Each structure stands twice: as C-alpha cells, then as structure tokens.
UniProtKB/TrEMBL annotation, chain A:
Gene3D superfamilies: Periplasmic binding protein-like II (3.40.190.10). It comes from Octadecabacter antarcticus 307. Keywords: Signal. PANTHER family: ARABINOSE-BINDING PROTEIN-RELATED, BLR3389 PROTEIN. Its main location: periplasm. This is Putative extracellular solute-binding protein. It holds the Pfam family SBP_bac_1. Coiled coil: none annotated. GO terms for cellular component: periplasmic space. SUPFAM superfamilies: Periplasmic binding protein-like II. Belongs to the bacterial solute-binding protein 1 family. It is found in: Periplasm. Residues 1-23 form the signal peptide.
TrEMBL record, chain B:
GO terms for cellular component: plasma membrane. It is a multi-pass membrane protein. It is found in: Cell membrane. The keyword Transport applies. The chain crosses the membrane at residues 21-41, 83-104, 116-137, 165-189, 210-234, 273-295. This is Putative ABC transporter inner membrane component.
Length: 416, 305
C-alpha cells in the first residue's frame, strides 16, 4: 500500500516536473538546513525566499539548525514529523539513512535532462544503484602555503615527493616547521591519510580500503604510513598538534612558524581574517608520490535530500531542481556567498583566486577520482576508530604495528 | 452497633490514613516510573540487541557484554579512568573542609573572600573546562610557562600527553567540586554547637584534637552528602572531558559515560546496543556505591532510634 502510494506520488511529481516551470506548487514546504554559519545561513535564507517568489502559493517554512548539532539531530528529525527537504553529506555518510529507508530514492530526478551537468558527483550520491540526494556545493582540499616564505627561501611549489621532502628540509633548516595541523578533533589527520594513501596506492585502492576489502595490515597500507613517516621523522609537523583544533593551529601559519597547511578551501577565509593577504598566500596540489597513480583529490560534497516521510514531495523535488540549476549554483557559490565550487558544470565559478585554482585542479588534474573525505568514504565506526589511530601515529609513529592491528580488528568486525 | 457504623463508612474512609499518602504520591510515582524506571529497563533491553537507532533491532543476547568485557581496549581505558576519577575526586572533600574552616573565621571582610571561593561553583562546568584547557595549552598556556620555569617540559602539553591528560581534567574538575564541598561544610559549620565547643575548650582541647573529636563528628551529615555528591560527580564526569579533550589524545581520557555517549549518540556513533551495554555496566557500578551509602544511612538511622 505504502509503496503504491509512493510510486504514484513519484509519478505525479515527475509529471509536475516535466510540465512547464510555472506549474503551481501549493501547500507547505518544510526545509531543515544545517547551514548555520553566517554566510551559508544568508545563502539558505536567500534560496528559500527566491524559491518562494517563484511559487507564491507555496508556504515555505525554513528551519536552520546548528551544523554540529544537526549531525545527531537528523536521526530524530527524519523519524518523527519529517520535513520535506534536509541537508546532509554524500557518500557512505548517507548509508544509515538509506539503509533505514529514511531518504527518498531520487533516481527519477536524476534522469531529468537538467541533471546531466551534475554527473561529476553522481557516484558520490549513489548507493545500492540509486541516487538519494542532490549536491549544491563542494570544495577542494590542497596545500595552502606562505608564498612569501617560499620566495624568501627560494622554493618552488613541489610537484614530486622528492621535491616536497627537499623543500621541507630547507624550511626546517630555516627554523620553521613545514606543516601546521591541529589534530585534536582527529579529522585533519584523516585528510593527510587520504592524500598519503591515494598518492601512494591510488584511488581504487583507497576506496577498496574504505569499503573494507583490504586488510589494514596490508603491505601497501604500510607503504603509505612509511611515506608519511618520512615527514614525521623530519619533524615536518608542528609539535603538540594533538592539543589544538584546526583553528588553533592557524596562528602558526599566520605567524610564519609553519609554512603550509593541508586543508579544505574553507580555511582561506580564516587565513585572510588572520591577516594574510593574497600576496602571501598561495595554493598547490598535493605532490605526486607514486608516478604510476593518477592524482585523486578530496572534494567533499554537501547535499540536499528528501526524507521518505516528506509531505510535499512535489515541491521538494522542484526545490532540489531549483538548487541544482546553473544560475542558482553560480549565485550560492560566489565569493560573497559560500565561496566554494558549484557542482553544476554549466555554472560559472567565482573569480576568487583559490576557487579558480581549485576548479582548475578538480577539472583537469584529478584524473584519479574525487574522494569525499575520510569520515564520509569510510563507514562511521571505522572512520572514528581510524582517525584516532591516525592521530596516534602522527605523535607516536613507533606504535604503528599496534595501531594497524587494532584497525584490522575493527575492520573484521565492522564490515562482516 | 459499633460494627454497623464501621460498615456504613466506605472502604476508602476506613483506610484513609494509610491510603492518602499514596494518593498524593501517585503522580510522582507515575512520572518517576515513566521517565526514570522505564528508560533504565529499556536500556537493559536494548543492550541485548544490535541496533542503529533507526531500523529493526536484532537480538544478539549477551554478545555486547562479551565484547565489552572480553578485552575491549576502549572499555578498559574508560574503566581505569573512572577509577582514577573516583579516587582523586574525593580529594575535593578534605580540600573543601580545609577551605571552609579557613573561611569560617570571624574577620572583617571574610564575606568577600567567601564569595570569591564560591565562584568556581557558580561558573558553568563547560566554561571551567574551556578556561582550564587554555591554561594548559602547550607553549602559550600559563601552566606550561610556570612549570617551564622549573624546567619541567611535558611533551604535548598536559592535555596532549596521554599520561597526564586525565589528571589535568580531574584537576580542572576538582576546582568547582572543592567549592561545592566547601559550601556544604560552611553550612555544616553553622550548625556546630557552640556549647560543645566551649565545653571542649574548657577541657583543654584545641587545634587538631578539637577538630577531630568535636567538630568533625558534628559535620557527619555534611560529610555524608559531600561523599555521595562527589562520587556520583566522579562517575558521571562527562562535560569536562567533552570540552577539554573530546576523549583524546588517542582516546586516553575516555570514561564510561563518555564512551557510552560516543558509541550511541555522537557524530559517528549509532551502536545503541553497545552504548546501552556500557550504560548498564556504569549503572551497576553506581548502584554499588549508592547501595552502600543507602545501607550505611539506614544503619545510622537505626542506631539513632
């Protein structure tokens, strides 16, 4: 009965969408969003207002919840009195809700011709052969560095691992650290592992590891850690990083005590706020380690989903089509809004230097693939145990055997 | 005639004295059962299942407990940390007593000092934790600067070093807890009988002997409350850990309540069954302590009658 009802609603929705855009939407559209920081919040409120202006008969109720709190609240929200549209993340991070049947299958929406321009992230939104959400933004990861210090020391952006190590030695000899990092909240170490592993063993291997198909004690994983350890043994990372959050590690870079930061593009705003100008700050792609593997990049995608208990599915789907359209994606990702990359290939990219570089990198030099990030590619329990081990490795690299055995134990239990 | 009049009165009227208290208690009992007893039983029930909090529960019997007690490293670390908390947190009681004795003098301006000592208790635990984590920051934190002057260098800072982090958090927790014990003892000291003190003084008691034989026995009720509150506070320590280290570094500061939260309610946790099993173990540990206190309180009252 329920499935018949759902199918007919889906069919109705499909008809509505193939009809002209002026099709009248009525009733209430309840949106719960975790875009709670000031700029994203303004974007979300703008989206709701613009969509409301297109559909005057539709009553939009927008509720914005704290981003961190939403990570636990979403479970209640989807089960009790579910809204029509929610924010979440792509890849494995969706799986608890997909498995529990709480997200609506949006495969029909993805068959719309307009969605072809979103193909780059279709994989990240696909689980069990169906699509469960639509992307609205993503951002690149990479090495943000102090261009002025590099110039002072006569260094070039490294392309190979040898260059990276040589650069780092020069930086260390000048009395600075090569990298700042704050690993108190663990995920920053996850970013390092994503790059070390995908550059050493390639994207395919990394995803196999994420899917539990490879043992953590595998020699290829050890090779990743051995490469990583070269930097640790040199003293490339700041001391005591386990005591800092990623923001607390920023002053090392701003003060010039450390020269680079492997981070997501959201760090640029904080660096600029810290007083670094665009002349002092630049960006390079994480260097190549194994020349035989194509570079894969971390580019986490933020998404919208429709709960399966949504009341106004027709309006919800129309809203999803609205936020994925090129114009809207251009607007919400511009430098004065989210300051990130639009997913829609037909959208235009903000003229911000870092967004341009990131777009260039992801479009032309990420042939290995796009990773969603350690805590989204790996299942939640594996991610939390894994990141704790990565943090321990960065402080006590000699514990590696013990750490890997622990992770392997966890893998055997979690993926059974 | 007498029996007839007794029969004329309704059953309720006849048992009014015995029943009325229960009638008044019904709403309380109902709420207590609904929001305290029932969830406890529910936790027991969930702990026998594997459940992600969303889908169907799968009955797995004692498997959660087998995993938990059969060498789960996180559990062992949490358990030992709980013991550390328990033992060291009790320092709040003598410290609180000492401060309250100090503040119980009749000196001009002592009220002002008293109010200063009240402060840590008034401030939210979250704020205390945050302030202490800045205090402990490596390199820039005041603590690191101070111990650096005497040549001690703790690698990673207090909170970044797995050997010291738990003690650093306990020290932060002791601050407000000491203030709380101090308040309890200040109240207790008000109730100390001045005639007994006077009599003891005439008998030549002073200093430590006066404290031990005359004052402390009269402070027994305050000590009892301080013990109960401190032990429960130590066992459910959560906020300090969440704010100061988030369980790190490398999970070395977890305690059972934090581990339970991590497993079942945190960003990466939806192993409700496993979390419930931890909760049940913690429940029994607490029950042991509370049971002991209730028993000793019962013994005391029996002795008093």
């Amino acid at each position: 009965m329920n499935s018949i009802y759902k199918a007919s609603v889906a069919a109705l929705a499909l008809c509505a969408m193939t009809a002209p855009a002026s099709a009248e939407l009525t009733g209430d559209l309840r949106i719960v969003s975790d875009m709670s920081n000031p700029a994203p919040r303004a974007v979300m409120e703008g989206l709701a207002a613009d969509f409301g202006a297109l559909h005057p008969d539709l009553n939009i109720e927008l509720e914005i919840v704290d981003r961190e709190a939403w990570k636990t609240q979403i479970r209640n929200s989807l089960t009790a009195n579910a809204p029509d549209v929610v924010n979440w993340y792509a890849a494995t991070r969706m799986s608890p809700f997909v498995d529990a049947g709480l997200f609506m299958d949006l495969s029909d929406l993805w068959e719309e011709p307009a969605m072809a321009d979103l193909a780059s992230t279709k994989g990240a939104l696909t689980l069990d052969g169906a699509q469960w959400g639509v992307p609205y933004t993503y951002y690149q990861w990479g090495v943000y560095y102090r261009k002025d210090i590099f110039e002072e020391l006569g260094l070039e952006e490294p392309v190979t691992w040898e260059q990276e190590l040589a650069n780092c030695q020069v930086i260390l000899d000048s009395g600075r650290k090569c990298y700042t990092i704050g690993s108190k909240f663990l995920w920053t170490a996850g970013g390092w592992f994503d790059y070390m592993n995908s550059r050493t063993n390639g994207y395919e291997f990394h995803i196999q590891l994420a899917n539990g198909e490879v043992e953590w004690t595998d020699d290829r994983v050890r090779a990743t850690f051995a490469n990583w350890r070269q930097l640790i043994d040199m003293g490339a990372f700041i001391d005591d990083h386990q005591a800092y959050s990623w923001q607390e590690a920023l002053p090392f870079m701003v003060d010039g005590e450390a020269t680079a930061y492997l981070m997501g593009n959201f760090a640029v705003a904080a660096m600029r706020d810290g007083g670094l100008t665009d002349d002092q700050l630049d960006f390079y792609q994480f260097p190549q380690i194994n020349p035989d593997v194509a570079p894969a990049e971390d580019a986490p995608t933020d998404t919208f989903h429709i709960p399966s208990a949504a009341q106004n599915v027709e309006a919800a789907k129309a809203f999803l089509l609205f936020v994925t359209s090129p114009d809207v994606q251009t607007a919400i990702n511009s430098g004065d809004a989210l300051g990130q990359l639009p997913v829609n290939a037909a959208a235009s990219v903000s003229d911000d230097k870092f967004i341009q570089e990131g777009f260039e990198m992801l479009s032309n030099n990420a042939s290995g693939g796009i990773m969603q990030f350690f805590d989204r590619d790996f299942p939640a329990e594996m991610a939390s145990i894994g990141m704790e081990g990565l943090q321990e490795f960065m402080v006590f690299p000699d514990n590696l055997d013990d750490i890997l055995e622990r992770l392997e134990d966890a893998r055997v239990r979690i993926y059974q | 005639m007498a029996t007839a009049s007794a029969n004329n009165r309704s059953w309720y009227k006849r048992n009014e004295i015995a029943l009325t208290p229960w009638v008044f208690l019904i709403p309380g009992i109902f709420m207590f059962s609904l929001y305290v007893i029932y969830p406890i039983l529910q936790s027991f029930w969930i702990s026998f299942h594997e459940w992600d909090g969303l889908g169907e529960k799968t009955w797995i019997g004692l498997a959660n407990y087998e995993r938990l007690l059969g060498g789960d490293r996180k559990f062992e670390i949490s358990f030992w940390n709980n013991l550390r908390w328990l033992v060291l947190y009790l320092l709040a009681i003598p410290m609180g007593l000492f401060i309250s004795l100090f503040l119980n003098q009749k000196v001009f301006g002592i009220r002002f000092y008293k109010s200063l000592f009240f402060f840590p208790f008034v401030i939210s635990q979250v704020v205390v934790g945050l302030v202490f984590s800045w205090f402990y920051l490596p390199n820039d934190g005041l603590f690191d600067v101070l111990v650096g002057k005497v040549g001690i260098d703790i690698s990673g800072g207090i909170l970044g070093n797995p050997n010291t982090a738990t003690y650093g958090i306990i020290a932060a927790g002791l601050w407000p807890q000491t203030a709380y014990c101090m308040i309890l003892y200040l109240t207790g000291l008000n109730a100390v009988d001045p005639e007994q003190v006077e009599a003891a003084r005439l008998d030549g008691a002073k200093g430590a002997r006066m404290l031990w034989y005359v004052i402390l026995p009269q402070l027994k009720p305050a000590t009892f409350i301080a013990f109960v509150v401190t032990i429960i506070g130590a066992l459910r320590s959560f906020d300090f850990i969440a704010v100061m280290t988030n369980g790190g570094p490398f999970g070395s500061t977890r305690v059972l309540s934090f581990y339970m939260f991590e497993e079942s309610l945190s960003e990466f946790g939806f192993r409700m069954g496993y979390g419930a099993a931890i909760a049940v173990v913690l429940f029994f540990i607490m029950l042991g302590f509370i049971g002991y206190f209730l028993w000793s309180m019962y013994q005391d009252e029996k002795g008093a009658h």
